[in-house]
Amino acid sequence: MTAHDHHSHSHDHDHDHDHGEASDLSETELRVRALQTILIEKGYADPAALDAIVETYETKIGPHIGARIVAKAWTDPDFRQSLLTDASKAAAPFGYKGDVGDNLVAVENTPDRHNVVVCTLCSCYPWDVLGLPPVWYKSFAYRSRVVREPRAVLGEFGLTLPDQTEIRVWDSTAEVRYMVLPARPAGTDGWTEDQLAALVTRDSMIGTGVANSPAGQGA
């Protein structure tokens, strides 16, 4: 397992990074609907079964599990240490109808270090913990640029880090899948795990964002 430390430098790029949640969702929906139509027309799938699968990923699996894991780590020092020592073992009990977290490694953000995850070869991703990968995660532009110039790429996501903060890029593979343990937002002392989980975003567990602030949740 090797991490890559990188420093930013200037490059001109033609790729337009529009990472808005709406654009990701619409493109994904179009692809899913096209595939669903083909499967149904050919009699390979039952519409009700497909609806059940989609509902499961939207409401029970995906980033909901990752957010619960992060919230637990924020409130339970022993669990946090277990997660950082053996994430697969620590995450397993959070699974929906089965274990999750196979080949999972958790890396923790600190005031001095920010972690970001990529898969340079394809799009390896802990689906069972973070849900369906965003469209941009699989793009060649993200996979190549975040390794060379992570600070610039994070800036395009709206994440500006202090110059002294080290950015460490972790390259996922079929054997190792990474998730980021983001920093706990300030102003959340005394919050329950459920309240904290609501602050955890998918992007914060990839490293292209940070957890929401209490003010952003209307607290």
General description of the model:
With 219 residues, the protein is α/β, with parallel strands linked by helices. It has 2 domains: 20-59, no CATH class; 63-217, Nitrile Hydratase, Chain A (Alpha-Beta Complex), CATH 3.90.330. The chain contains 10 helices and 5 strands. The chain has helices at residues 21-41, 47-59, 63-75, 77-85, 87-91, 127-130, 140-148, 150-156, 193-197, 202-206, and strands at 3-5, 104-108, 113-118, 166-171, 177-181. Helix 3 crosses helix 4 (77-85). The longest helix is centred in the first third of the chain and has 21 residues, at 21-41. The radius of gyration is 18 Å and the shape is globular.
Could you tell me the CATH topology label of the largest domain: Nitrile Hydratase, Chain A
Shape: globular
The CA-CA distance between the termini, in Å, is 39 Å
Low-confidence stretches: 4-24
Main sheet characteristics = 3 strands, mixed
- Helix-residue proportion: 40-55%
Going by CATH, the architecture of the largest domain would be Alpha-Beta Complex
Which CATH top level class of the largest domain fits? Answer: Alpha Beta
What is the radius of gyration computed over CA atoms, rounded to a whole number of angstroms?
18 Å
**Count of individual helical segments:** 10
What is the succession of H and E elements?
Answer: EHHHHHEEHHHEEHH
Total domain modules: 2
